[in-house]
Write a sequence for this structure.
C-alpha cells in the first residue's frame, strides 16, 4: 500500500505516515528474531513474514510458488538480463517449463530477443523475495550481495533452494556469452 493510500485511510498527512512507517520499520529491525519485516518497494509498503521463516508457515499461508521453480528464479535474478538459452544450458530442458510458470505467476518478464527470450525479474519478484529495489539491475546487485553473504555461487544458491530436486546446475560466466554480447554490470 502506498503512503498516500495509508494517509487517506488514517486521515493523517503523508509526511506523518511516512515517518511513522520508517519508525515502525526501524523498530522491527531492532527486535531480535522478529518474524516480520516492513519494506518499501517503489513507494509501496509491504509487511510480510521474513523469507527465511516462510517454510515454517502453515501450508495455506505460503505463497503459491512451487519449490522446483526457485532455482530458475534465483539464476534469472543473479544473471539478469539473461537469455533463456543460457538458462537452458544451466538447468536443462526443464528450464522452458520453469520460465513459462514463473512468467505466468508474474515473477519474470520474458521478451523475444532473436531466436531466444531475454529474461528479467519483475516488481512482483522483488516484493515476493523482499528485495528493496525493483529495477532489474538493482535486483541483480542485491541478489548477488545476498548470495555472497552466504558464500554461494549462483549454481550453489540455486541448488540449495530445491534440495529435493536432485539437480545438477552448471555455473555460468561471462565467458559463456556469445561473441559481441557482454553482461551488463552496474
Amino acid at each position: 500500500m502506498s503512503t498516500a493510500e495509508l494517509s487517506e485511510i488514517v486521515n493523517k498527512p503523508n509526511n506523518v505516515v511516512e515517518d511513522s512507517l520508517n519508525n515502525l520499520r526501524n523498530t522491527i529491525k531492532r527486535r531480535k528474531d522478529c518474524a516480520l519485516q516492513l519494506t518499501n518497494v517503489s513507494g509501496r509498503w509491504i509487511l510480510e513474514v521474513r523469507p527465511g521463516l516462510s517454510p515454517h508457515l502453515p501450508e495455506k499461508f505460503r505463497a503459491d510458488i512451487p519449490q522446483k521453480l526457485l532455482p530458475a528464479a534465483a539464476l534469472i535474478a543473479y544473471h539478469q538480463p539473461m537469455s533463456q538459452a543460457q538458462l537452458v544450458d544451466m538447468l536443462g530442458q526443464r528450464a522452458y517449463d520453469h520460465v513459462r510458470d514463473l512468467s505466468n505467476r508474474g515473477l519474470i518478464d520474458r521478451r523475444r530477443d532473436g531466436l531466444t527470450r531475454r529474461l528479467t525479474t519483475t516488481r512482483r519478484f522483488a516484493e515476493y523475495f523482499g528485495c528493496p529495489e525493483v529495477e532489474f539491475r538493482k535486483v541483480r546487485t542485491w541478489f548477488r550481495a545476498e548470495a555472497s553473504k552466504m558464500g554461494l555461487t549462483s549454481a550453489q544458491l540455486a541448488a540449495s533452494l530445491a534440495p529435493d530436486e536432485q539437480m545438477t546446475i552448471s555455473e555460468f560466466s561471462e565467458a559463456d556469452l556469445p561473441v559481441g554480447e557482454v553482461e551488463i554490470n552496474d
Q: What stands out?
A: The domain at 3-59 is CATH 1.10.10.10 (Arc Repressor Mutant, subunit A). The longest helix spans residues 14-30. The helical segments are 3-10, 14-30, 70-79, 84-91, 94-104, 123-128, 136-149, 154-161. DSSP finds eight helices and five strands in the chain.
